[in-house]
Amino acid sequence: MWQYDLLCIGAGPAGEKAALVAAKFGRRVAIIERESRPGGAMVNTGTVASKALRETALVASAMRRRPIPGCEASVPKGLSMQRFMARRTLVQMEEHDRIEDGLEAAGVEIIRGRGEMVDEHTVRVHRIDGSTTTLTTDFTLIATGSSPARASCVDFTHPAIVDADGILELATMPHSLVIVGAGVIGSEYASIFAELDVEVTLIEPRNALMRFLDEDIRTVLTHGMEDVGIRICFGKNATKVEGLADGRARVTLCDGETIDADCALWSLGRNGNTRGLGLETLGVMPDDRGNLKVDSHFRTTCMSVFAAGDVIGFPALASTSMEQGRVAACHMFGVPFHTRLADTVPMGIYTIPAIGAVGLNEEDARNGGRDIVVGRAHYRDNARGRMLGDDRGLLKAVFDRRTHALLGVSVVGEDATELVHFGQLAITSCHGIEHLLETCFNYPSLTELYKAAAADALNALNTQSIRNAA
Known about the structure:
- This protein is of the alpha/beta class.
- It has helices at residues 13-24, 40-44, 47-60, 62-65, 81-84, 86-106, 184-195, 215-227, 318-332, 362-367, 383-387, 416-428, 433-438, 448-469; strands at 2-9, 29-33, 109-112, 114-119, 122-126, 132-142, 146-148, 161-162, 176-180, 199-204, 231-234, 238-243, 249-253, 258-261, 263-266, 270-272, 305-307, 347-349, 355-359, 372-378, 394-400, 406-412.
- The chain is globular, with a radius of gyration of 24 Å.
């Protein structure tokens, strides 16, 4: 038996960061990973892979979005996906190297195989060669991530029918694509493939895209997706997804309509990867989606077993998974360094246009009984926004009516996932309308949108004051 202070099962963002924190504070740490390279879904199938594809798609469509008279450019039909995604492969390799180099430098061992809990301090590793190794540990972190949920009405054996892990492994670029599920993943892929002139149909059982977003932001996103030709079917369920003899896919909707396409992507939910971990022997029981319940320290019901990342459910972002791993490791070993998640956690959604959000949106603030004033700034009124060809983008800021403090920001448009961080800083620094109005921003820059939103909010306050006085 080999003794460790911490064993992380899974080398995704949560496992990696927890291992690094523990190792840097002198603990003996190992990561158990069944895949050949580290990074989890973040690098191999999700965040890095899809975002690299998005950037390539934007380059391919740049002339359409910012036309140059007399110049035309388009993505050739039937192009090999592997050729088109060469940039994605390079970025993935660089991330793999970065993670492995960092773990090696910190003294973290990587053990290839599948981890299984024997008891609260013992983990059995089933190695790739069929052998087993038994390890003992003071603490274990479950960081096994999640996998796409698969419905029984979908024939995943057919090559034209894929989930979020398989969409990037297609042999050729499809001419048409049907996506079932307009959550974050489904909406991102709909935007990416539409940008490449693929005919996209997006099917969503609910009546709107991503209801957790601000309503105005959702509206801009919906119109932006429709502008590039995405057909969005709200309020419809897919009852069957089957392969056809000609190699294409057919999606049957609840109202009897059928949609045929070169490819069908099933993107309705994800399940935590908790099967085969032996957690039942510890009394740690996942919910019906395979997710684990944890406390504020990311400890499960077993005192020596923690969990972080996608395996604990929402928000299931790479950024939050990293922070959760760090916080968990600090609590395991009593390190007074990173003991809780930040109060303001930003969200980035890489649709086209992109979305960034942090803090309260208007609906959440009003439902929470907050007395607020809202400021809006449109990209079309911003010099940089016009240069970028973004005439729909919107930055929406929510301020406390009494103190004028910034409570939340939602952005849809170019660089939204970067812009949101300035709002995050303003919220944590308790700055608001006056600070944004007095700050000098570069010109031309999208950051000026904050000043415009603050001015809009101040104008709303002054207008209300005049009405009250009258």
